[in-house]
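Supplementary notes (optional reading)

For those who missed the lab, this is the record we used. Protein: Clavaminate synthase-like protein. Length: 396 residues.
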Amino acid sequence: MAIEVAPLPVPPTADAEKLKDFGREVKGVNPGTLSPEEFKEVHDLLYKYGALLFRDADLTPEQQYALTKAFDPSSESYGHGNNKTGGEKKSILHPDLKTIPRVPQVQLIGNGNVYNHEGLAEAMLKHPSHTTFHKTRVSPEDEAKGYTRFYRWHIDAALYDLSPPKVTTLYGVKVPQGQHQTVRYDDGTGDELEVPLGTTAFVDGRNMFNILPPELKSLAVRTKVKYAPHPYVWMAPAHALPTGLGIMTEGLELPYDELPPWEESKLKVLPMLWKNPVTGELHFQVHPCGASQLLIDPLPEGATRDGALFPDGAHLKDLKEVRELLYKMQRPAIAPKFVYPHDWKEKDLVLFHNRGVLHTVVGAFTQDQVRAFHQCNLAASDDPTGPTAEDVKKWA
């Protein structure tokens, strides 16, 4: 059977026009046994649409690893270093990851106690919740009524030493069903979003760039982001904003001299915009929680200076200024009308272009709601490519 492609169901909360080119369901092939020709088609579909869904997929951890690796054959280790960073007990990732013993590139994530699973006699899983990471929280009374928040908008990446993975694969092994929840943004806008229980929410980095006003497009195309060393350890004592889109600046980050050993040469300085290798489009790809500095190039020769921000370039080191500018640029794209919240079913396999979308865990489970997912992403063989000189000339 030939590969068939169908649009993902757009939730009624979303702007169908803005999401028409995001996400596709792929039918007619087994993702665990793709032929080279089928894989090439899937590869190009992923970069074109940002996320692919395979329903009722039977997928072993070995097959999931092989599929993920096929997008970047030189990649080998889990995106955070086969749990090297996550295993650091000070890291905010530490409670969320359990490694499949025989395939260490595949992680078991979820909620509740899972027994005799893929070589793990017992795994106590904890679904990340905003209640432990945000500065404020939804009250227990409102939580009981079904209100919740986005946890942390992010890219899957160590953001230190290792290059950001190109693709993440998520496979739903056990998916609890329950009442929908309502995400509150709690940022003064009144924004809310109804979501399925335990959804993974996605936004398209192309849209995040495309909806910016001209002066912010000019800034984005000229800017690189410098990330903190061991950012998940660095940010662990800090608190997130209520939208999950970045950190409050309270001076709570771990001082650099208290972090695990680090080297300046291994710090990540990445473009604000990442270029899609298939479509050539620009995706706004910044992990707002880990960013520490912004390096802005001056306007190119001949560009108009009218209304331009930092026309002569700048190196922003003030954490509050960096975070406020990033929030101004990223917040419009997580408005309810731009969010795709996936409604998980058991045996769903979702592939997403980790260099083209931002995503977040959402909601909360009770201890008896058991959820088990297999996640795989691999530290890439190279760093993302930024805008070309032609892109800078066009947008600056």
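If you only remember one thing from this example: The longest strand covers residues 106-117.
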